[in-house]
C-alpha cells in the first residue's frame, strides 16, 4: 500500500478538502501512474453532491486522468515506465460478458467498476484522479499520443470520448447535418470532433454569448434556443442532435428539429426524470437515445483521432485549493471550457 495526497468530499455537499488515501500495491498486471493533471467534470459535482443518488464517502472524484507511468507489474506488456497514459471513467469490468468481449466495457452487463464512487472487485472503494497517484490494471489504461499536451488531453478521457462515441455510432460525417446542444465542457468537444469528422455542425445554445468561440472551434452555424424563431427556422433540419445538457428539456421541441429517421442522443444526465409525448417520436420515425462513454479500444481511437487532427480540450488550469471555487463556476457556466487540476499543487 502507498499513502498519497488527495482532495476528497468528506460527505454529500461538503466542500472538498485535502486528505490522504491508500493506493494498493502494484499487482502482476497493474500500472502505477503519477497523475499530472485531472479534469473537473460536471459528473464529479453530481456525484459529490449526491445528485444522482446515494454515494460513497469520503469521495475522491476525477475520471479524466493524465499522467506518466512510474511502475509496472511483472506481467504488464502494454506499458513501460515513462509512458504518457490516461485513465477514464472505468478501471475494470467483468471481461466475460458479450459487451466486454465486443470492446464495450462501458456497458458491461455485470457492471463496470467506476474510477471513483465505485467498489472494485476486491471489495474496496475506488478513488479517482484528484490525487497524486493511481494504480490501474493495464487493460483499462490508454496511451496518450505525443501530439497531445497532457493537460489538454485529460478532459478527453471523459468529455472527448463521451462525444466521440455517439458521433461515430450515429455516423456523423460528410453529408450529415449535426447539432450539438450545449456549448460547455462536453459540447465544445462535440463541435471539434463533429467538424473533424466532416459533418456540417450547428451549435444550439441558450444564448449567443459563446457564438464566436463556437465558430472558431469548427461550427458552421450557431443558434440561440432562447429564441422561439430558432425552432421555426430549423424544423426538420438535422440528421443527429447530441444533447450535452444536464437539465430537463422540452424534448418535443428538440425532436421537431430532426429529419425523418433522425436521432436525438443524450449524453447529459439530468438529476430529474423527464416527460415525453410519444407522438414527437412516432411522427417521423425518430429516435430518442442515450450514450455513455466508449470502451477502451474506442477511447484509444479517439485519442489518436484528436492527435491526428491537432486538438485537445480548451482548458483553464487550476490549483487544487481552487477546486471548490471551480465547482461553483461550473454550475454558473463560468468556464471555457474545462477546468483541469494541476495535480502538483495537491
TrEMBL record:
This is alcohol dehydrogenase (NADP(+)). Keywords: Metal-binding, Oxidoreductase, Zinc. CDD domains: CAD1. It holds the Pfam family ADH_N. It comes from the Bacteria. Its cofactor is Zn(2+). Residues 14-341 form the Enoyl reductase (ER) domain. One of its GO terms (molecular function) is zinc ion binding. Gene3D superfamilies: Medium-chain alcohol dehydrogenases, catalytic domain (3.90.180.10), NAD(P)-binding Rossmann-like Domain (3.40.50.720). Belongs to the zinc-containing alcohol dehydrogenase family. It catalyses: a primary alcohol + NADP(+) = an aldehyde + NADPH + H(+). The keyword S-adenosyl-L-methionine does not apply. Its EC number is 1.1.1.2.
